[in-house]
Design goal:
Layout lengths: L14 H4 L5 H26 L7 H21 L3 H4 L3 H28 L6 H32 L7 H8 L8 H19 L7 H33 L15 H10 L12 H23 L1
Helix pairs in contact: 2-3, 2-5, 3-5, 5-9, 6-8, 6-9, 8-9
Length: 296
């Protein structure tokens, strides 16, 4: 579906690379921080699991622990310059997996384990898990369709409205509005479901169950964009960096440079505009001198 789109259709997605936020070196440094965050979150999961009666909670957490350990080892390996300079696409795949693991999987597991602390049965917990996952899948599908439609409309082309908006409002909350609206809709359905089955919804319940689920939906909303950026790194050279850490030029930049360079054919001399007038005067003087010699 994306093969028919030109490189310019994805131009806005280059902004994190152009700004230097997602250079291989910065991602390598970020990996160390993500490893520490993962370790902290895993310990929090097991702490809350002690007070929960969610069915099979320790088996689920053990699987998550093993996956997190594998990701941590890979992040550590791809923090080494010798490695990530030669395979920055793999480094980006690991970054996506790690970010989804920390900001999506962990909040979901925390919400499920915390829900198990309530006076609810195992059947309800399984039903609650299915509802959250189904709504999460719908959020992801809605985000993917929205993103594809925007790509087809050319919303991410250079100098488009969205491109200018992202450059100006990259740090503004308005850039998060689509994610918040979609995720908020999914959260509303979740709250409606809970209100019919849970008697008391207090602040503790909101912070330990509702808020983590909101984070889960928001991060799922960003996943299609991450996947498209990964696709661009495989398809376009301009989304990657050379061994010195410089971003390869965009195709339009290369074409612009070619237009500025004059094409000089073999056996001809190039004279720029500033010296053209002087050259013409010299030729005129030579012709006049030859005419004088011939006349005399």
């Amino acid at each position: 579906m994306l093969k028919n789109l030109s490189e310019n259709s994805f131009a806005t997605l280059r902004l994190p690379f152009e700004s230097g936020k997602q250079t291989p070196m910065n991602i390598g440094l970020l990996n160390f921080l993500l490893i520490l965050i993962q370790a902290l979150l895993i310990s929090i999961e097991y702490h809350f699991a002690q007070f929960s009666h969610y069915p099979g909670r320790y088996k689920i957490l053990d699987v998550h622990l093993h996956i997190s350990i594998i990701l941590s080892v890979l992040m550590l390996i791809y923090s080494i310059p010798f490695v990530y300079k030669r395979s920055q696409k793999i480094q980006y795949i690991i970054l996506i997996l790690a970010s989804q693991n920390i900001f999506s999987v962990f909040p979901l597991l925390l919400a499920l384990v915390s829900m198990g602390e309530r006076e609810v049965g195992s059947d309800f917990l399984i039903l609650f898990t299915k509802v959250v996952l189904i709504i999460g899948a719908l959020v992801f599908i809605a985000a993917a369709i929205r993103f594809y439609v925007l790509l087809k409309k050319g919303a991410f082309k250079r100098n488009s409205k969205k491109d200018i908006q992202r450059r100006i409002m990259e740090k503004n909350m308005m850039a998060l509005m689509p994610a918040l609206i979609t995720s908020g809709t999914g959260l509303s359905f979740t709250i409606i479901f809970l209100s019919r089955h849970v008697r008391i919804i207090d602040i503790d319940f909101f912070m330990s169950v509702i808020f983590p689920i909101l984070i889960f939906y928001v991060v799922l909303f960003t996943l299609p964009e991450q996947l498209v950026m990964l696709y661009c790194k495989f398809r376009f050279k301009s989304f990657n960096f050379d061994k010195e850490g410089n971003l390869y030029p965009f195709s339009e930049e290369i074409e612009g440079r070619k237009k500025k360079i004059p094409v000089i054919e073999a056996g001809t001399a190039y004279v720029d505009k500033s010296s053209k007038k002087t050259g013409d005067n010299k030729k005129t003087n030579v012709i006049i001198d030859k005419f004088k010699n011939w006349y005399h």
